[in-house]
Amino acid sequence: MSQPVEIGTLPNTSSITIKKLLSLGIKNSSDLLNYFPSRYENFSLISNIENSRPGETVTIIGKVIDAKFQIARTGLRIQNFKLEDDTGIIEFGFFNQPYLLRVIKPGMYFSVSGEIEIFGRKTILKPKEYEIVDSLKPKKSLLKHTGRIIPIYPEKAGLSSKTIREKIFYVLSTLSPSNRVNNLDRLLPEKIVLYNGLIDEINAYRNIHYPVDFSDLERAKARLAFDELFTIQLASLIVKRSWLAEKTTNNFYFERFENEINRLIKGLPFKLTTAQIRAWNEIAADLKKINPMNRFLQGEVGSGKTIVAALACYLCKLNGYQSVFMAPTEILVNQHYQTFLTLFKDTDTKIIKITGRDRPKSTSNSAVSVDDADIIIGTSAILNRNFNKVGLVVIDEQHRFGVSQRAHLKKKGVNPHLLTMTATPIPRTVALTLYGELDLSVIDEMPKNRLPVKTHFIPTWKRQSCYRWIDEQITTYKNQVYIVCPLIEESVNETMKSVKAANSEFEKLKKIFKNRSIGLLHGRMKASEKNETMKNFFYKKYDILVTTPVVEVGIDIKNATIILIEAAERYGLASLHQLRGRVGRGDKQSYCFLFTEKESPQIYDRLVFFSKTSNGNILAEKDLEVRGAGNIYGTQQHGFIDLKIAKLTDFSLIEETKKAAEYFLKNHKLSDYPELQLRTEINLEKKVSRD
Ligand code: ADP
Ligand code: MG
Question: What pTM value is reported for the model?
Fold first, then answer.
């Protein structure tokens, strides 16, 4: 394609329009071409006036013979026009658009698309789109708004679809005519285009905006979807390649220490699940190599990821290296610290936790110094420290993928193994497409002792009886309850608004559960207060813990068996599933109650589907289907991926583009393809900034 030009240089473009375009991130002609229509209007039936039938959507081209202003009996101001062709005369009118009388003048040739209607005894045209043309038979390729399949663009930032269409039409008219001989595809090598049965780039852009027919449109979409996924795959492969070329710090590698590891496994109070063993074997195989591991461990909430990571830390210790174990909050740091102390009590593993963002030096209640420790547990703040001999970094409850942490570590001259863990169900296709550089282990099996959480959608009229039921459960079984306040804003950081909502919910609940002790937890509390609250909940001082939605993933309190979620309709299913995972972590029957603020058949269907489905991956796939990938991660994540045209459910295209990207890297040099290089670099940048 030709070199992109800045939008400032487009003809007839006001500075206001330029500002609006810029606010949408449209800086040049190439950005414009990649602003795709949300739908199309088919105005391709060009009809003469005599043959136009009521109910038809047509385009009529004629000469304006009358233009006048009228006031209807209802008081509406109407701009009325008459159009004549060789076969007759037809009227059409607009409401409250006085400027049209200044633009559309008798004698002009005019093309107007819309629906033919009977109005009183007259046949009229209800106009949708129109434009001035140069004759009764204008060239079809010169029609922008009528007479063909017309693109309708998303109207954002106050830009009308028509304005965007004008601009894109102009850019398309500057592209050289599509001709394979002198107009080679600029993005992809010819071979890849041909092998994958793609149409060429310019044709694709022409047809995505102005398809000649709908099969052309499909071919255009296929080509552009290919480009989109291909460039993503390429970025992943490039990252993977450079990672594979890396070596661990001083080329260290681990011996297996099978006996010691097995002894630890045998000492556990439970048997590892098959999935846990498989994940561990995959990790152990990575740790034998001198290439640093980049593994992503995904597993349902409560599937037992911690123990798998702990085994990796133990192997690291046996080999004389330190592990750094990072959790997102201090509460989780404390929880892991306790877990690890118990787990390693019969070994000589030295464990230390570092808490307190502000005082990185304070090592709490431990005689072990950082240099002596085998396992160092803390929040991400600990990455700023220098460690003696770090061989492994584990990042727990990460919704992102450690690319930037890795870069950070490397800058400090250490290149340890990296294990990233999440309970966020990530559809395999997403993981393999967008994070193709990572190796993936999945724990897709729950420990045997678990009962599925019974999930119920509670209509408003049953709210009180649900509260009563919960109250009785507390009395009878002494189990504990989470109540999750409404999600106010989908934001990673809790806002004051959310905190307010939590406070008022707290006050309300104190009245409802008069005889219960209730704790409150939200992100704006001091770390020490949070710890205190969690400790109280853990030691059963509270029956009920009221929390905001963004707090405390990963909390593992077995006696908490009921979770009540307010305004459940505001969440993606995957996020709801995360919340539900706070209960059902032991062998007691657990319950999840969904309250809603709104009720509608769609909300009902979605929540009932959720109630019946306990598999996080199915829920994530459903989110993908219904809400698009960007929304899977709901509260946790924004702009995770925004594919413009390709679909992550298109498995075969994902496969094809992956193969094509591999072929490209084997046979071509990226620097020979500047346009492709540019787009790949943008994807590489996204990888890091997403992190
Ligand atoms: P998550 O994968 O959500 O991080 P955890 O690692 O916190 O889950 O494990 C949840 C609970 O399940 C912990 O109390 C842990 O001790 C227990 N657990 C882990 N693996 C098993 C197993 N194979 N059988 C029974 N319980 C297990
Ligand atoms: Mg966990």
Answer: 0.72
